[in-house]
């Protein structure tokens, strides 16, 4: 399965932290990555704009079928100059189907509903991706839109809102929820769907408690944190292929979505918001289920002898002299989490029409061995396009005493050599 996206707002972004996070993963990204890696999920990509963060994970078996990964962002804070508000997006092709995840943090306060809508329209209008397939957000086959959208409950007074929450009659509040009201009127929102708000409003809470705002401001509770989706109807794209071609493609390769759950997590209390989660099931016909490259180790691997990688291109793709093959432990967390790598051109030993051999020096192989996989990274496609079956790297028989083995170099080839 595609694990999907994790979105965060107001991630601490002081100057020192912001500089360090530009070099290293921020604490939230690291924690999520370290938690999901042992469960078999790999970080596909991420994007951060100041305090706005979006991460995408998938199971290893799907990794080589996720392509065309691109990210972008739009600032809307302080007249578009500051990134405390705005939107970050991550698009990808999943078995050939164009998906886009859009994480927004829109303007706050009860009387700013029109401004929030204007910011959303601005994000849709300004964000663009290279290539003809889905140059705009709404050109994607499926869009997930989520975040701290900051829409409030209007008209109803505090006493009525609190009594509905206490009695769990949330449906009495829906008609005055600003986003629900606007979805009926505004064209930009009409094609987005949302499950029923059958959970308590997620804002605003006293820290470290389940108590709604008890400060002097006594802000009215609201469902500020939302998850919506839009499945494009036939011919619904704006800049992709012609309508007839779109309709034929969508009929031949159907995509369906079903929301399994939509709820908040009341047990978390480190923020004045409660996190919201949703689980979806996607049913689709794959546009291709063969990787671009087949990989396998040549013979037995250990740090006692030099090794070979054997790979075969299965389909034409834009290869580059900067393509590389990485050796990863089973359970690796991201593309950069490799043990070592070899350049497919510089380290090529021999090639034929069917198989190419790439050299890996024994000093690069872990002396303690372990279960590993090989991954082919395409620099032009900016993604992994081939993953080998798991294989065993044998422990070195010639290694010195335990504890005297130096740690393998893990510097990214793109940082070190490009």
Structural class: alpha+beta
Question: Major sheet: size, sense and barrel closure?
Answer: 6 strands, mixed
Specify the helix fraction band: 10-25%
Summarize model confidence as the mean pLDDT: 88
Assess the beta-strand content as a share of residues: 25-35%
Our count of helices gives 10
Tally of DSSP β-strands? 20
Please tell me what the overall shape is.
elongated
Spell the H/E element sequence. Answer: EHHEEHEEEHEHHHHEHEEEEEEEEEEEEH
Radius of gyration: 24 Å
Q: Report how far the terminal alpha carbons are from each other.
A: 33 Å
Low-confidence stretches: 12-23, 406-412, 414-418
Q: Could you explain the architecture of this structure?
A:
This protein has 418 residues and is α+β, with helices and mostly antiparallel strands. The chain is built from ten helices and 20 strands. Strands 12, 14, 15, 18, 19 and 20 form a six-stranded mixed β-sheet that branches. A five-stranded mixed β-sheet has the order 4-5-6-7-8, covered by helices on one side. Strands 11-13-17-16 form a four-stranded antiparallel β-sheet, with no helix packed on it.
